[in-house]
Design goal:
Layout: H1 2-34, H2 43-47, E1 75-77, E2 85-87
Antiparallel strand pairs: 1-2
Bound molecules: iron/sulfur cluster (SF4).
Residues 50, 61, 64, 66-67, 78, 80-81, 86, 90-92, 94-95 line the site of iron/sulfur cluster.
Length: 100
Amino acid sequence: MKKTRRSLLHAFGAAAIIVPASGLFLSRIAFTADMPKLTIDDPTAKSLDYTHESTDASKRCAGCQFYTGASDSAWGACVIFPEKLVSAEGLCNSWFMRAG
Ligand code: SF4
């Protein structure tokens, strides 16, 4: 009986962590889907020479440390351009090779 009560407490503890975390994950997906695409005439994009199409195959947003988009997505979020999506094929002067 004591073991069952402990197991229940562990299950509730795990649920207390997993449920809010999954909610954050789902809200992030919904938030990202609503974000507009970065345009090349955006003042910050201009100042960092952002382009939607990198001419250097070894440097693309998808391989940048600041890119947080899904690996199979054509557009994704970037830490440098909050609330805007950047092209996975894009590039700017802040590119930094993704670790790992
Ligand atoms: S920092 Fe620049 S290169 Fe890196 S993901 Fe953002 S826009 Fe792309």
